[in-house]
Amino acid sequence: MQNRSRVAALVLNSVSRDIRVCKEADSLAAAGFEVTVIGMVDRTASDVETVRRSGATIHRVNMAAWAMHRKYLREANRSLLAVIALVIATVGIFVLSLGLLLDEFWSQIWAMLGFSGTVIVAFLVVLIGWASRRTLRYQRSARKKSLAILADRPRPSSSRKRRDITAETLGNLRAILASGKFFVFAILRVLSHRRRSAFIRSHFFPELERIQPEIVHCHDLPTLPIGIAWCRRNPSTRLVFDSHELYEQVAGLSTLERWYWRRQLRRFAGRVDGFITVNESIAAEHARRYPSLPPAVVVRNATMLPKDEPRDRGLLRAAAKVRSDERILLYQGGYAKERGLEALIRAAPELPQGWVLVMMGWGNLQGHLQTIARAVDPLQERIRFIPPAKQEVLRDWTAGADLGVIPYENTCLNHWFCSPNKLWEYPVAGVPILASPFPELRREIEGAGIGRLLPEALDGPGLRRVVESIDSEALEEMKTACHEFARRDHWGVYQDRLLDLYRRLEKTGATESRQLLEVKTVSAIVGGAEVIPAGNAGT
User: Fold this and answer.
1) What is the DSSP letter of 248?
2) Is the predicted pLDDT of residue 537 greater than 50, yes or no?
């Protein structure tokens, strides 16, 4: 086999559950590239080095020192606060000990003001009092007008009105303080991103020195500054940016963090030699926001082409303790905020009789979701939680479900444009999908006939209506469509696009590869713009 370039892929996880990274590494290794994935040791994988059957190597850096670093940093901040408090106390004691001097100081101030100064100060005090009283009077007048419109509501007493005004004022103050607090927290998180990036770079660089890669593959935006820093030191190294999502629109980021990540990508976009992303919508959005990026090569999160038809071996039903006469609605994947999981669990008790919701996943939100499940389903008749299945046998477990669900919330542009692994993992197991009505999900599900769309605001009645609309005949038709979809839209289609990009990078220099990519027309290179829903068009 022809010897090809050395590739270093940068990932900020253990790679054990990042199937997209594994598929890309395996495809490149099978094509002759010497691939090393640099990840991190965590609770899901503690092995420092793993060699996959394809020949790709996963090398995990032990980042335990980062936790110790953060611990020492917190202690240093506490010590600094203690020093500041001691300084303030010392200065206060010193000032109070000079009582006579203070008396002389105040007497000198009043002497300087004189009669006219005293009148001006008194006038200002009266003016502040008048303005405050006027504000309260106008607030009471506004409240009376609103009560006159709502004639059926009794008017409160004057003491009640005063209490209301006080409560409203305190509420406004709390809101101001809260916004300031969150702004401070956002600043601290941005500083933490910068410190963490520098710390990870210091641990990844020795591995890059050892590998001496000719191509660096950065998975998602947080790894891009590390790849850029390496390529600055080694100008002949080509840089591939693989955006798994619209990162600055990830759920849970503050406005300041979104600005920070946008600024990072705008700074580095012109240095990228090859750009990969997961679907046409996100590709078009990147092209609109970051015109300096090369045209996107779309490599979807599709699964491998199955060698045989899926077969239910009873693994899922046995683990979840679901009877043979009951049907399963399955959620598989990470338990994260704003994925609609709370709403899904609250809606589950209203599923049609004979249906059970099975949650097969992991994440920090698990305890919270189980608490909700116990509240809405105390007898655990309609909701079951089971551990996640290993990726190698996931298809066998998924095949035991009757329907799979993707209930994401429309809280950010990244969710609106999402096309998660589950969009292929369910159909390859012969399981039709219930999904949120977002552009990429709608395009695949309605286009291939592999499922139905949920209402955007998921609740019990809405979930029940959708499930009741699927009879046995419709379910079988959708399962057949799933098999056809899996045979037509699989990883092999997108593997060719990935390898085509890498071969061009091998044959040309960094600058030449960008020019060639811009003029060469292939089906995987997309342009145009996607319609953005109102409320999600923030940049």
Assistant:
1) G
2) no
Q: CB-based burial of residue 456 (10 Å sphere; 0-12 exposed, 13-18 middle, 19+ buried)? A: middle
Residue with tokens 């702004």: 183
Residue type, 240: V
Q: Which long-range contacts (CB under 8 A, 24 or more apart) does 435-443 make?
A: 435/405, 435/406, 435/407, 435/408, 436/340, 436/406, 436/407, 436/408, 436/409, 436/410, 438/408, 438/410, 439/281, 439/530, 439/531, 440/279, 440/280, 440/281, 441/406
**Both tokens assigned to 510:** 């960094």
The residue that leads in pLDDT, 134 or 238, is 238
CA 130 from centroid of its chain's CA atoms: 51
Give the 3-state secondary structure of residue 407: coil
Residue bearing tokens 């940068």: 10
Half-sphere exposure (Cβ direction) of 294: Cα atoms closer than 13 Å: 31
Question: pLDDT tens-digit profile of 167-225?
Answer: 555 555 555 444 445 566 667 777 777 878 888 888 899 999 999 999 999 999 999 99
Q: Hunting for tokens 């300041």 — which residue is that?
A: 256
Distance CA 20, CA 88 (A): 55
Q: How many residues are given for the chain? A: 539
pTM of the model: 0.73
Q: Note the maximum CA span of the chain.
A: 99
Apex 314 CA angle, 407 and 390, nearest 5: 60
Taking 80 as the threshold, does the pLDDT of residue 244 lie above it?
yes
